[in-house]
Amino acid sequence: MHFEEIEAAAASSETGAPGWRFAVAAGILGWILDAFDFFVVVFLISELMGKFHVGKAAIVWSMTLTLAMRPIGALFFGALADKFGRKKPLIACVLYFSAVTVLSGLAPTYWIFMAMRLLYGLGMGGYWGIGASYAMESAPRHRRGVLSGLMQGGYPFGYLMAAIGMQTIAPRFGWQAMFFVGVGVTLVIVVLAAVAPESAAWRLHRTPSLGKIFGTLFQHLGVFGYLLLLMAAITCLSHGTQDLYPDFLKTLPWMNGVTVLGMNATFGVPVIYNIGAIIGAIVVGAMSERIGRRYAVMAALGVCLLAMPMWAFGGSVLAIVVGSYLMQSGVQGAFGVIPAHLNELAPDAIRGLFPGFVYQLGVLFASPVLPLQNLLRSRFGYPWALCSFETLVIVSLLLIFWFGPEKRGRSFVTGHRAEATEEVSSRDNVALR
């Protein structure tokens, strides 16, 4: 790549490449769709049990398979994104997981359904890494924080869309329709990615072979190990405060018969705290541009600690609503910084693979959190199990971020820009290697 092209890439890092909004929109919409397609199965457990004549554990296993395949998908699609660019692998990934989702709704037997959910995990794992790197590389540096929050806020937004679909689409068109409605969004994502420019940072740092891609990964095992610990801990916080909480609400006798937002409280309260999650992700993401990624996350974790008494021990509907809203605002606020933080710490040559792989591997390593919380519940009761475990996780995260590195606002092209300047000064204006 010649000096003039590198200067243009450096300029786009400051102001965003022309059409950068299309790349960012494709990344955000894809993560929303990914979450929607995943939570459809969560909401349809009873219907799937009836269709396939299996128990709840059998359907839960399909979600476990999806989880287990996510790191493999991140590795596969991420390597493609570093070798061939962000656009084509992103389009291929969204078409792939959308097709598998449709086939999941058409599966005639339990084992075919299981196979589809296993294959779906590859796509779900692959999309986040490509979408996040494409969005962060395309957007102006000073907007990474808020766009990071918008992207990560797409996950609870996908949950809300699935919940709304269960109340509107499923009763009218049948529950299988929930596997089909995302196709329209898929087409929008494909169009957005097709018209968006390719990542200038990828063109600068492209790696010619898969061997060099994986070789670069092994050269950065130190930062990979640190970020793996970070992602495992923050996933324990996210899933540990979300997944069992609706079941916890059902154990509170004074919640029986109570309505929230016109719905049963065990359904209405999650809607409210997911709204808090979306707002928290955006607000803390934007805040990270001013005070730094680490301090923004630590402030969000402080909100979690303040919310803990009401969240776990609240003695009224109002206390539970306020506590859970604040808790998820803090949890997803902390998570909202992650897309920008991981991409800024990732090696330039493998930014398509590195953030997504460490993200999804961290999710997998955190998967024992629910059985562990269940064990604590059987010994100490629900409130103390949730409170003690998550307090330990939050304190651990505070230490991880306090002692960890940060590269807020780093340029993704600076190294090549400096190298090009040296070559031009010696009148050797040739393509950089």
From TrEMBL:
<dbReference type="GO" id="GO:0005886">
    <property type="term" value="C:plasma membrane"/>
</dbReference>
<feature type="transmembrane region" description="Helical">
    <location>
        <begin position="118"/>
        <end position="135"/>
    </location>
</feature>
<keyword id="KW-0472">Membrane</keyword>
<keyword id="KW-1133">Transmembrane helix</keyword>
<dbReference type="InterPro" id="IPR020846">
    <property type="entry name" value="MFS_dom"/>
</dbReference>
<keyword id="KW-0812">Transmembrane</keyword>
<feature type="transmembrane region" description="Helical">
    <location>
        <begin position="147"/>
        <end position="169"/>
    </location>
</feature>
<dbReference type="InterPro" id="IPR005829">
    <property type="entry name" value="Sugar_transporter_CS"/>
</dbReference>
<feature type="domain" description="Major facilitator superfamily (MFS) profile">
    <location>
        <begin position="23"/>
        <end position="408"/>
    </location>
</feature>
<feature type="transmembrane region" description="Helical">
    <location>
        <begin position="217"/>
        <end position="240"/>
    </location>
</feature>
<protein>
    <submittedName>
        <fullName>MFS transporter</fullName>
    </submittedName>
</protein>
<feature type="transmembrane region" description="Helical">
    <location>
        <begin position="22"/>
        <end position="46"/>
    </location>
</feature>
<dbReference type="GO" id="GO:0046943">
    <property type="term" value="F:carboxylic acid transmembrane transporter activity"/>
</dbReference>
<feature type="transmembrane region" description="Helical">
    <location>
        <begin position="260"/>
        <end position="283"/>
    </location>
</feature>
<dbReference type="InterPro" id="IPR011701">
    <property type="entry name" value="MFS"/>
</dbReference>
<feature type="transmembrane region" description="Helical">
    <location>
        <begin position="175"/>
        <end position="196"/>
    </location>
</feature>
<feature type="transmembrane region" description="Helical">
    <location>
        <begin position="90"/>
        <end position="112"/>
    </location>
</feature>
<dbReference type="InterPro" id="IPR036259">
    <property type="entry name" value="MFS_trans_sf"/>
</dbReference>
<dbReference type="Pfam" id="PF07690">
    <property type="entry name" value="MFS_1"/>
</dbReference>
<feature type="transmembrane region" description="Helical">
    <location>
        <begin position="58"/>
        <end position="78"/>
    </location>
</feature>
<feature type="transmembrane region" description="Helical">
    <location>
        <begin position="382"/>
        <end position="403"/>
    </location>
</feature>
<feature type="transmembrane region" description="Helical">
    <location>
        <begin position="295"/>
        <end position="312"/>
    </location>
</feature>
